[in-house]
Amino acid sequence: MSHEVEAGDEFGERLKAYEGRSAAVARPGKDPVNAPMIRHWCEAMGDTNPAYEGPDAIAPPTMLQAWTMAGLSGHTGRAHAYEELLTLLDEAGFTSVVATDCEQEYLRPLRPGDEITFDSVIETVSEKKTTKLGTGYFVTTRMDVRVGADLAGTHRFRILKYAPLRQTDQSGRRPRKKPARPRPVVNRDNAGFWEGVQRHSLLIQRCTGCGTLRHPWLPGCNACGGLDWDTVEASGEGAVYSYVVMHHPPFPAFDPPYAVGLIELAEGVRMISNVVGVPYDKVRIGMPVRLEFQAHDDELVLPVSRAREEVA
Ligand code: ZN
């Protein structure tokens, strides 16, 4: 064991002491569960499930946290353990924060009129971890939401509190090298799509139950609910269905202005890609484009839409 690890452990132990400490006890929600908040939520989410309307309405289960939110005015009677822990991390140089994931469990539906209370506890503080963002600690809090004595649901929320990687070189200057283009988020639902792109093949998912094509990739069919699928390879022909020109905000890996198109492929599905081969201000709705694959660096291949020669 090196001294460095031991020093790290000492700080780690101070952080670990926060595990199990309470951040809120039987704190009441600001409003009872109510139909207007449910309606706004459903409209924002585009959720038209009839279970959330009418005299027997329940609240969407995923609204669980909404009933506990403090708003700008905050909750009264704050417990300070969580703020204390974050301050400790800030002072040790772990000044950045990113929300990494949340998990919810639902035990009882919430209905308009229910008055909730919630407890919040610091559940775990991880060992020191190094991630692509920097080195830091994952902090997980668990919130139990109750109606009376009944547990309605549990909301677990995890953040990474980290020291950002150095953005400057040793002379203190910003590095000149342009940052790499952000990677796509590849998960088990879309891995096949990105594997295809790597081989310069654009694969569209097809429901084997009803034959409906879909893009982007999803676990199930929106037309029939079927879970089985295969793929068809896109011919590469398409047209600009809609587009935007990005000016602001500028991201370091990109050179604005540039056109981002919603491309309708000949097969009928739509895909978002850059429109290339034509000045950004010459992109038009209906413009025919052809699929192309662009290698951005050793790892990253992306599909782009090149304006056909007759319009370029
Ligand atoms: Zn289907």
Summarize the structure.
The protein has 312 residues and is mainly beta.
Write the layout of secondary structure elements.
Elements (H helix, E strand, L loop, with lengths): L2 H14 L5 E7 L6 H11 L35 H11 L4 E11 L9 E10 L3 E2 L3 E14 L2 E15 L26 H8 L4 E5 L5 E2 L14 E5 L3 E10 L11 E8 L4 E7 L11 E8 L5 E7 L5
This protein binds zinc ion (ZN).
Zinc ion binds next to loops.
Explain this structure.
The protein has helices at 3-16, 35-45, 81-91, 191-198, and strands spanning 22-28, 96-106, 116-125, 129-130, 134-147, 150-164, 203-207, 213-214, 229-233, 237-246, 258-265, 270-276, 288-295, 301-307. The protein is mainly beta. It folds into 3 domains: 3-164, Thiol Ester Dehydrase, Chain A (Roll); 186-233, no CATH class; 236-312, OB fold (Dihydrolipoamide Acetyltransferase, E2P). Strands 1, 2, 3, 4, 5 and 6 form a 6-stranded antiparallel sheet that branches. A 5-stranded mixed β-barrel has the order 10-11-12-14-13. It starts with a helix and ends in a 5-residue tail after the last strand. The model is unreliable at 1-6 (pLDDT under 50). Zinc ion (ZN) is lined by residues 207, 209-210, 212, 221, 223-224, 226.
Report how far the terminal alpha carbons are from each other.
Answer: 63 Å
CATH fold-level topology of the largest domain: Thiol Ester Dehydrase, Chain A
Query: What percentage of the residues does DSSP assign to strands (E)?
Result: 35-45%
Number of strands: 14
The CATH H-level superfamily of the largest domain is Hotdog Thioesterase
Radius of gyration (Å): 25 Å
Shape: globular
Low-confidence stretches: 1-6
